[in-house]
């Protein structure tokens, strides 16, 4: 049993003063086979604690259906950290931000009657309670007060950046206490008046999130918390990328190390955000919406202390020198490294069009008006909206309102144009040449907003479709979560300009990490042995997808690329280096 608490201006663990030197590392962004490797590297840096968010949407993908296996096995991750002598900080939300889809909230919440997010709203809190009943039951045995490694837990996350509902925050706090959470509770917010006024609670430790100017941040903290340890819960030593950014965001190692040094000199405890970023596998990337909608890329490299694939960086070495000024570093034996390998080119010899595969991927749903993905009980992926337009119309205006987030338009099987949410409400001039015309609109959910005022972010066609002044009705919709593509029959029916699946096989005889280069491809999703690696898009800055070795297997492997815009050469290449940026 252990007791971690605040005494005057220090953290105290079992009566002894301790400075928390922590690294952010999310179990759900890293293959479980790599957890130990990354945790040992964290410890070798001189850190004594690992911090992680908890993504509700990963653990309750469907209402009332809970999942805690593989990448989602939070108990195993925390137990491993404890076995390695590390403390653990858990940030259970229910909202996490973290550049993760919907900030970790499950998409099905948007289909709940009368729901309002992140406030004292009964429909919302009822679902939070149901999740916390399950989650906290798993975490309770792992608290330091029960002999485990968890020393502290967060109430909500950066709430002052969103709202000021103290009744809501108090409800979450009391809910944790009632369920037996008896470790230190804290909040974390930016160092501004509005954020600290909105996001903090009396009797709960206040911590800060920032990337620079620690002395200025400390001064602001002391206006709201005159005593207690200064803790930077997120020291932003790097940053994330959006699709379409001109280049990969980086932060100079020397600059970041100097700020870390300044913080430690000022007496801060620090959590590096991120120590190791990892990957937004599948459809779990989030998005931002300040001036425009901006989806986050698949890589969560973050220019952090370890690269996306776990390599030690110059920033790691610079931080290690700083930390060594303030404590004696323990000698930690690292694991042998798996290494990287270029497996070469793979020709994807089998092809099949999306439209020809609809009956293998989806059951159609009919409605007078287009329904959002959430109304179709769909979390991720794509939705195909189909209707019949009768009569010849040589020229008209097609007005699709509320495209979330990117729509491909087809008339009678011919690609017409793209509508992208980032570009605003663009109307198209089109023509219908037959007595009966098939209008198809394929909408991609590119990631729900994870931060700020626009987090209520339903997907699909969220409003209406008009031809000139006339609303179009009688829709058939095909939800395409693409979480199981095994039923596709590859008969070679493909138009190179239309969305299609491309399949190939390759053999390997040693398992190494690798990177998939998609030179010559446009936009889509990649599956290896059924595992969704994530999205690619030629706009960059990400040009390769990280392929961790546990996804691969000895002998024959399968790769499937779902390409939205076709390719001249259905060839991919496995290379031994990332080309991020």
TrEMBL record:
Keyword field: Glycosidase, Hydrolase
MF terms (GO), sorted A to Z: hydrolase activity
InterPro entries: B-gal_1-like, BetaGal1-like_ABD1, BetaGal_gal-bd, Galactose-bd-like_sf, GH, Gly_Hdrlase_35_cat, Glyco_hydro_35_CS, Glycoside_Hdrlase_35
Domain of life: Bacteria
Domain Beta-galactosidase galactose-binding: 499-557
Domain Beta-galactosidase 1-like first all-beta: 370-481
Family: Belongs to the glycosyl hydrolase 35 family.
Pfam families named in the record: BetaGal_ABD_1, BetaGal_gal-bd, Glyco_hydro_35
Residue ranges annotated for the Glycoside hydrolase 35 catalytic domain, each copy included: 10-325
Record's protein name: Glycosyl hydrolase
Organism: Clostridium omnivorum
Ranges that cross the membrane: none
Lineage: Bacteria, Bacillati, Bacillota, Clostridia, Eubacteriales
